[in-house]
């Protein structure tokens, strides 16, 4: 096998592994939701559990689970979020995208503190 051929095969394998990486990371609903909010929301919102939003009007995603019921978020994502301020574009998501986004947002909620058992 020539050195040139071996280099070409190695390069192709590296490219294939690099391309396969994001696809496997996108397999879980949480990962798909995270990718969707990164793409559509991160320009204005802090999309992690903590941090300030780039746009001060935009609530950080870390507060969404405590501020809005899941049903309200699901409806807003399905029908189009309308906020009353011009900076927010209107987004309408498909049901599978909504499930993924809600799974991601739910993962940002702090775990409930465990109370000791009653005696």
Description of the structure:
With 119 residues, the protein is mainly alpha-helical. The chain has a domain at 28-108: Cytochrome c-like domain (Cytochrome Bc1 Complex, Chain D, domain 2, Orthogonal Bundle). The protein contains 5 helices and no strands. The protein has helices spanning 3-25, 29-40, 64-67, 70-79, 95-108. The relative contact order is 0.14. Mean pLDDT is 78; it is low at 5-21.
Oligomer: single chain
Mean pLDDT: 78
Using the coordinates above, name the CATH class of the domain at 28-108. Mainly Alpha
DSSP helix count?
Answer: 5
User: What name goes with the CATH superfamily of the domain at 28-108?
Assistant: Cytochrome c-like domain
Number of strands: 0
Instruction: Determine the N-to-C terminus distance.
Output: 75 Å
Q: How do the SSEs run, as a string of H and E?
A: HHHHH
Shape: globular
Largest sheet composition: none
Q: Helix share of residues?
A: 40-55%
- CA radius of gyration is 20 Å
List segments where confidence is low: pLDDT < 50 over at least 5 consecutive residues. Answer: 5-21
Mind telling me which CATH architecture of the domain at 28-108 this is?
Orthogonal Bundle
Strand content: under 5%
CATH topology category name of the domain at 28-108: Cytochrome Bc1 Complex, Chain D, domain 2
Assign the structural class, choosing from mainly alpha, mainly beta, alpha/beta, alpha+beta, or little secondary structure: mainly alpha
